[in-house]
Amino acid sequence: METAENFNVNTSFGLLVGRTAKLLVEHLQQRLNTPDIGLTMSHWIILAQLWHEDGLSQQEISNRSGVAKPNVTTMVDTLEKESFIVRIPDQIDRRINRIFLTQKAKNIRCKAIEQALSVYQTAFEGFTAKEREALLQGLQKVRTNLQSGAEGSCGHHNTSE
Questions:
Q1: How many H helices and E strands in the chain?
Q2: Separation CA 22–CA 53 (nearest Å)
Q3: According to the model, what pLDDT value does residue 8 have?
Q4: What is the C-alpha to C-alpha distance for residues 52 and 35, in angstroms, rounded to an integer?
Q5: How many C-beta neighbours within 10 Å does residue 3 have?
Q6: pLDDT recorded at residue 151
Q7: pTM score, two decimals?
Q8: Cα(129)–Cα(48) distance, rounded to whole angstroms?
Q9: E strand residue ranges, 46-156
Q10: Alpha-carbon separation of residue 21 from 2, 3, 27, 106, 160 (angstroms)
């Protein structure tokens, strides 16, 4: 187990996760920003949520994607200008806009998802199904721990295993 005395930032969990996430984004951006798809990562973040469930509010998109609501608003503005989505007032609460996919966004769904899956396939090359599942579960556990505010202090660590 790593301690303050033997901590190496260059091999640390945080740096490894950060660098890996950056590479994943770079590869995905390269695959999505093509003439036949034409998406940025901002587009992808919003559209992926709507492809999963069309008609979400901006707050729901923010909660599900982990993107701050003001940033979601900016992204939705851009997607609307580029004719990927339309805003429709909620039938019950007119203060809320529901975000719906246009045919343009629906038409690129399969191509975009295939490109994302291709990047994921590359990322998981050499993994067994069990290793892949363990990694995903582990990352989800880390995310849950951090969201719940689990804290440690120098010299103390959680040994719940």
A1: 6, 3
A2: 26
A3: 86
A4: 23
A5: 9
A6: 54
A7: 0.81
A8: 24
A9: 56-57, 85-89, 97-101
A10: 22, 24, 10, 27, 27
| 57 SS3 class | strand
**CB 84 within 8 Å of CB 40:** no
Q: Is 78 helix (H, G, I), strand (E, B) or coil?
A: helix
Cβ-defined contacts of 102-109 (< 8 Å, 24+) = 105/47, 105/50, 105/51, 105/79, 108/36, 108/37, 108/38, 108/39, 109/47, 109/51
- Six-digit token string for 65: 């994607």
CA distance 140 to 83: 34
Distance CA 46, CA 56 (A): 10
**By C-alpha distance, which of 133, 109, 94, 3 is closest to 48?**
109
> Looking at 34-136, which runs of residues are DSSP E strands?
56-57, 85-89, 97-101
Q: Mean pLDDT, to the nearest integer, of 114-133?
A: 96
pLDDT category at 12 given cuts 50, 70, 90 is confident
Return the closest-CA partner of residue 123 out of 21, 33, 5: 21
Q: How many CB atoms neighbour CB 85 within 10 A?
A: 24
Between CA 3 and CA 84 the distance in angstroms is 49
